[in-house]
Task: inverse folding
């Protein structure tokens, strides 16, 4: 499994490309914008994209999904349907945050807790982790001890809860009940900034000290 990060939009969101080096098949996770840049990396790495995965419906994670789906002719999976309103209001979100025009993206498959998604030939479990956004999902593979965290937990911080649909107590419950039990050895890529692991965050993240 190979991983590449393409920072997109002025929010520097970590659009994540994961693929199998032998087969070249992989996925794009959270194409928030700057689609030509994403396509350039896909071509350079010779990645055959099988699907697009979305962790949640905020503009910096989904703003380029419709355009990329049209360019690649692949399906979009995720997030949880609780983010339907956010997904439908992508154009309004773009105006609100001063980003380029974006088209709404209706997923081909909404995800729920207990689903699995295929990433580079590996089965990742879907964890529904609301709080930052009502329909936020996290992708986790136990064998690899690896997760795609989106904006639930960051290196040294947590996701914002002051956006529509956000709730601090709900987010902290998601982290306490869904993320921390995965174990300290689980490494993760988050939606912004540097990667980390759960043990590091359990020990040093100031938001987690009372969980």
Result:
């Amino acid at each position: 499994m190979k991983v590449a990060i393409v920072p997109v939009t002025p929010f520097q969101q970590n659009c994540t490309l994961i693929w199998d080096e032998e087969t070249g098949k992989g996925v794009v996770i959270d194409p928030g914008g700057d689609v030509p840049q994403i396509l350039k990396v896909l071509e350079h790495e010779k990645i055959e994209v099988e699907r697009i995965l979305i962790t949640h419906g905020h503009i910096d994670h989904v703003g380029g999904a419709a355009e990329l789906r049209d360019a690649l002719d692949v399906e979009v999976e995720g997030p949880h349907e609780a983010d339907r309103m956010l997904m439908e209001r992508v154009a309004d979100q773009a105006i609100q945050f001063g980003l380029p025009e974006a088209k709404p993206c209706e997923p081909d498959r909404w995800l729920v807790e207990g689903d699995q998604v295929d990433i580079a030939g590996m089965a990742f479990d879907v964890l529904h982790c609301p709080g930052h956004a009502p329909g936020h999902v996290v992708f986790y593979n136990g064998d690899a001890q690896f997760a795609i965290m989106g904006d639930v937990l960051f290196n040294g911080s947590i996701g914002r809860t002051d956006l529509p649909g956000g709730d601090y107590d709900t987010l902290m419950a998601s982290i306490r009940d869904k993320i921390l039990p995965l174990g300290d050895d689980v490494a993760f890529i988050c939606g912004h900034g540097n990667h980390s692991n759960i043990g590091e965050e359990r020990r040093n993240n100031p938001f987690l000290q009372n969980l």
In short: The mean pLDDT is 97. The first strand starts at residue 2 and ends at 8. DSSP finds seven helices and 13 strands in the chain.
